[in-house]
Design the sequence.
């Protein structure tokens, strides 16, 4: 049996994870005097309550090597093979720790794939991996296809407030001040495993949402038709707005809505929302 494992940054939600038989290993969210396992000991709602309570933004930490080793050993000892993919190696030490654990356990039976993404950008790769697993592909065949697919994922997020990006060291003070003064709602795209500012809409959040919608519609003719994700950090109204439009534009494509977990939310803040999809080769 081939086991597919991810980390808590993939943001697929418990229902999809259970349906697809994907195991999740959590990263940690840390405040000065406390640490919580993402999605197990703390929810996204809890996270924002603690930010207000402690008047402090959380930091996040990678999954330690021994944690990966324990999970990998468990399945290899059962005679299974394992594929792990999680947050981009450019964004966290988690990938490197997973790789070192795979070498320690058995790198012929445990494969680690760099998603080159985050949130449901990882989720899209996982969906494909499960599809290949269920159609009977071998471990190496699945890994080969995943390494091709990671280059076809397009992820874009609109940031409502730049405080979290700024305080987390992901944008300069000048950019943060300009964002407040000009009411910029930056659109962050993930390319080559890193986050880049793609556009800087000024004004209400709806302008940024419409810009993201315009982008996916522009990609209509090359869209992968398996599914589209709308993932948000407590941005239910924005999510409903995008979903209604996309369902009309793409009536034959399954559209999933998911809530961003605590690690992703720690870096982007409340109100952030993304549209994530794949394109054809």
Sequence:
């Amino acid at each position: 049996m081939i086991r597919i494992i991810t980390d808590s940054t993939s943001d697929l939600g418990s229902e999809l994870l259970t349906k697809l038989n994907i195991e999740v290993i959590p990263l940690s969210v840390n405040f000065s005097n406390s640490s919580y396992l993402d999605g197990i000991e703390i929810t996204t709602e809890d996270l924002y309550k603690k930010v207000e309570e402690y008047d402090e933004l959380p930091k996040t930490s990678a999954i330690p090597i021994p944690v990966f080793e324990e999970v990998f050993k468990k399945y290899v000892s059962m005679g299974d093979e394992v594929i792990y993919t999680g947050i981009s190696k450019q964004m966290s030490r988690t990938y490197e720790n997973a790789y070192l654990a795979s070498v320690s356990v058995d790198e012929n039976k445990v494969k680690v794939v760099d998603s080159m993404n985050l949130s449901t950008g990882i989720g899209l790769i996982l969906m494909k991996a499960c599809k290949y697993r269920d159609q009977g592909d071998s471990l190496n065949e699945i890994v080969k296809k995943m390494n091709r697919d990671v280059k076809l994922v397009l992820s874009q997020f609109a940031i409502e407030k730049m405080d979290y990006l700024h305080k987390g060291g992901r944008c300069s003070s000048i950019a943060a001040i300009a964002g407040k003064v000009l009411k910029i709602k930056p659109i962050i795209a993930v390319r080559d495993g890193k986050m880049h500012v793609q556009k800087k809409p000024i004004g209400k959040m709806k302008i940024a949402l419409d810009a993201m919608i315009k982008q996916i519609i522009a990609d209509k003719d090359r869209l992968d038709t398996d599914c589209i994700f709308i993932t948000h950090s407590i941005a239910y109204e924005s999510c409903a707005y995008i979903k209604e439009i996309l369902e009309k534009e793409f009536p034959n494509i399954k559209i999933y809505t998911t809530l961003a977990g605590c690690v992703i939310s720690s870096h982007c803040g409340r109100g952030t929302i993304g549209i994530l999809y794949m394109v054809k080769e």
Observations:
- The radius of gyration is 18 Å.
- DSSP finds eleven helices and 13 strands in the chain.
